[in-house]
Amino acid sequence: MTGTRRIWLVVNSASGSNDREALAGLERCCTSAGFTINRVISFPDQPLPTGESLDAAGIALAAVFAGDGTVNALVAELAGWGGAVLVLPGGTMNLLYHRLHADRSMEEVIRLAAGSEVTRTRPCVIRCDAGTALADLLAGPGTTWHEVREAMREADLVAVAANAAQAIGATLAAPGVACLEPEIAGRQEYPLIMLTPTAGGIKLSGFRAGTAGEYLKESLAVLQRRFREGPHDDLGVADRVALASSDGKPLSLLIDGEPADSPAETVFRLVPCGVDLLASEADGR
Fold first, then answer.
1. Cα dist from 257 to 82, 112, 116, whole Å
2. Is 170's pLDDT higher than 90?
3. Candidates 3.90.1150.10, 3.30.1330.30, 1.10.260.40, 3.40.50.10330; correct CATH number of 5-117?
4. Could you give the CA distance from residue 2 to residue 112 in angstroms, rounded to a whole number?
5. Most CB contacts within 10 A, which of 67, 164, 194, 231?
6. How far apart are CA 67 and CA 90, in angstroms?
7. Torsion over CA of 165, 166, 171 and 176, rounded to 10 degrees?
8. DSSP states along 228-243
9. What does the pLDDT look like over 181-216, one tens digit per residue?
10. Contact (Cβ atoms closer than 8 angstroms) between residue 188 and residue 178
11. Comparing 5-117 with 131-272, is the CATH topology the same?
12. For the chain, how big is the Rg over CA atoms in Å?
């Protein structure tokens, strides 16, 4: 990656850091490091690049400056491609970015990538029939808070209040989700179970109704997924996980922050990512 190298950049104007000033700063940083942004793709207004379109343009590296949901969509689109993806922190939480680069600044990561001081890796991710989670996956009625985040994006404060109340009510009152595999003592039900991919397996965390309710009432913690830092039950680590909704209805999911529905009983497996990602941390977790 020495010398000037052309890259394509994917952005999302709805993501946390994608304003004009941030994008201009990103372009300056890339230019200083030795990259030339040959094309900017604004998703979802424009379609994501495919492996074929990148190859046809002679592009071997696609950078993405967006939140976890957009990064997820790009990685899914490029599965099987022979190039690599550089994930940059353009969202609110940027969980995958931190998996790959820990607490390094974006400027340092770009410099390292331009100087070939990064590794190509296919970190472990979580796959189910509804999709693939690169950073985290949430299951249970507590995922209703997603509607709060969407309302906040649109600056609709009335909808924020209404959806927040609905999310809290759903979390505390609705039937929960249980872990069938690995077997948890008593098959305790939770309003929210979080699955996190790691090199050693899928880490399971259960949030009880009281804890979830407390965090759902803190709108900023909800919007930024900070409730994941709060008190929870560690349910173990496994390569294969089976979850089930207690009422037999479809299981509500958030896959890297984006909503999805899955059958009442769903199996989640640890698999390698479908395309190479650039990492400045040795394990890429």
1. 27, 28, 31
2. no
3. 3.40.50.10330
4. 11
5. 67
6. 6
7. 170
8. GGS--EEEEEESEEEE
9. 998 755 688 888 999 999 999 999 988 766 656 655
10. yes
11. no
12. 19
pTM for the model stands at: 0.85
CATH topology of domain 131-272: Tumour Suppressor Smad4 (2.60.200)
Cα–Cα distance between 61 and 57 in angstroms, integer?
Answer: 11
Answer whether the bond into residue 47 is a cis peptide, omega within 30°.
no
Question: Are the C-beta atoms of residues 240 and 224 closer than 8 Å to each other?
Answer: no
More confident residue, 175 or 161: 175
d(CA 254, CA 262): 10
d(CA 118, CA 129): 32
Most confident of 194-203, 213-222, 274-283: 194-203
Nearest Cα to Cα of residue 238 among 206, 196, 190, 192: 196
What angle (nearest 5°) sits at the alpha carbon of residue 76, between those of residues 75 and 77?
A: 90
**What are the angstrom distances between the C-alpha of 142 and each of 2, 89, 207, 212, 224?**
47, 26, 9, 7, 14
Residue 163 CA to residue 223 CA, distance in Å, equals 12
Which ranges of the chain would DSSP assign to H, the alpha helix?
A: 20-33, 51-56, 68-77, 95-101, 106-114, 146-153, 157-173, 209-216, 219-223
Provide mean pLDDT across the span 100-128.
96
Query: Both tokens of residue 154?
Result: 């649109």
Domain boundaries, the chain: 5-117, 131-272
| pLDDT, mean of residues 212-227 | 53
Token pair belonging to 73: 């969509």
Which residues 6+ apart lie within 8 Å of 160 measured at CB? 148, 151, 152, 219
